[in-house]
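Write out the 3D structure for:
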Amino acid sequence: MPARVVAARTRHTSVDASLNLYERDRRLAASVLAGGIAFRFFFWLLPLALIIGGVLGFSSGSSAEELGSDVGLTAAAADAVGEAVETAEKGRWALLLVGAGALVWTSSRSVLALRRVYALVWNVPPPRSGNPLKEALVFSGVCLVLLAIPAGAARLRDIAPGPGIGVALLAIGAFFGIWLWVSSRLPHSDAPLRALVPGALLVAVAAQIVHLFTVFYVAAKLERASALYGGLGTAATFLFVLYVVGRLVVSSAVLNAELWGQRAATADSQSISPG
């Protein structure tokens, strides 16, 4: 580490805190953990796309296109699967049943992965699993709500056109509340709820940035990748966005754990200092 950085670290608390956060992130190999979460999310999206495609196959093909304009990546997968379902009418029910079973399984495995990652970040033993079906349903429900928030925000902008700052703040507030609750259900040592606020705020703000990035850049790139490289290009684009999401999920836990650890260390040093 350069001498200038070391000197700044001893003089400025903010620099020391930032470097501690960076070092914890590297020590935990957070990028590797994010990749594992991204793969879990990817395998969760596959059966979801089957279910959405099967449902849309019973209605009209225009529904998938309308959904695609609102939620981006998931809708792109649903649109592709919906077209496949329309060409295979006899297999619609089979796809729905297979998709539902696979969704429950991938959801339960995703919950297990999140628990282990958060336990590692907070340096606590991973808790025992509860009811797999209940956890899978809760996980899928939370994910669907998070995916629906951008779509709902887009609908609100269509209904009441004008400055979208209010809608954006509503979306940020919804993401903040949901992720704060999710963080409280995952391992977080003995930290109180207030210690989970920084990570929830990070997720809430960054989720809006990721959504804008997805709508204005990734959606067009997804179409080009699909045309140039077929399914491989589409999968690579999906995995890239999901890796960003996974990195955000891990970073929120790392941020909370580091800030709470620094606060606890400061409190301990003040309690043992004379006078």
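The radius of gyration is 21 Å.
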